[in-house]
Amino acid sequence: MTTTVAAYAAPSAKAPLERTTIERREVGECDVLIDIKFTGICHSDIHQARDGWSEGIFPMVPGHEITGLVEAVGSGVTKFAVGDRVGVGCLIDSCRECENCEAGLEQYCHKGPIGTYNALDKNGEPAYGGYSEKIVVDENYTFRIPDGLSLDVAAPLLCAGITTYSPLKHWNAGPGKKVAIVGMGGLGHMGVKIAHALGAEVTVLSQSLRKKEDGLKLGASHYYATSDEATFTELRGTFDIILSTVSAPLNLDVYLSLLKTDGAFLNVGGPEEPVALNLFSVMAGRKTLAGSGIGGIPETQEMLDFCAEHGLGAEIELISASEINDAYERVLASDVRYRFVIDTATI
């Protein structure tokens, strides 16, 4: 039988989110029913609820930073039991057959991964996210939350954590490497924590010095304002890796000038507008301009275990569901330190 649960949804593009009810599917043989406790608010929720990236599927229940407790399991489930602490991230399924899926890179599934929301599942039904009381997910796309992480600070790791962890690991951030994190927000603050825990020397590049004290406390050794033109002169040729977490278009040419020879500029922010690039900026110094999208299932569990080992939860502001629309505006105004998390008991 399906289950009716309360949720917050955007009824149409750019419309305020409102309380409603949705149907969750019957728990199948390999499914887990999760009683959601906390859901993070990601900037991508705003992009999608407001048709910023592409035309969305409405009504839309956002939310892909989900933690909770297993309430029921299907007859074939082997990885989880009732009462387990679990999480759900940005995807809930993939083809499971292509080269990338077999390699644990489900986020790059050749047939397209199925997002936790604003997507159609394999039955052609809309997928609804974590701004809701419960969710049903295949056990293979569900994560174990280590005991060392509380569920509230663990929720943003399911997007902000893996989105920064994956490229930092892939491009070998670690001892002897100088890493710059562009943007000190929901993604950026986790990038600082993770890069520092990996052993890199971390610099924050932010519009102003307003959050400098926070950045240094979270693991940065240096903090510069990008609004100061002298920053780009002083830091020219400094970094092995620059990880950009901002969703606004940047002047890529000036940022690429901050890389060493063979340095890499990694983009995980998703601007709604196209950006310009002079190719000589990458040709001079054999530099790499790359992007990265979340992480696969094995790597996401690896990230959770890493964060638990190093005590890396997100810095959060816990809110009630009635505050979601205000939180969206505050995210756009950069008025959050550093991730809003919804207490789903208030839905």
From TrEMBL:
Its cofactor is Zn(2+). It catalyses: a primary alcohol + NADP(+) = an aldehyde + NADPH + H(+). It is an enzyme of class 1 (oxidoreductase). One of its GO terms (molecular function) is alcohol dehydrogenase (NADP+) activity. InterPro entries: ADH-like_C, ADH-like_N, ADH_Zn_CS, CAD-like, ER, GroES-like_sf, NAD(P)-bd_dom_sf. Keywords: Metal-binding, Oxidoreductase, Zinc. PROSITE patterns: ADH_ZINC. Residues 15-342 form the Enoyl reductase (ER) domain. It holds the Pfam family ADH_N. Its EC number is 1.1.1.2. Belongs to the zinc-containing alcohol dehydrogenase family. This is alcohol dehydrogenase (NADP(+)). It comes from Streptomyces spongiae. The lineage of its organism: Bacteria, Bacillati, Actinomycetota, Actinomycetes, Kitasatosporales.
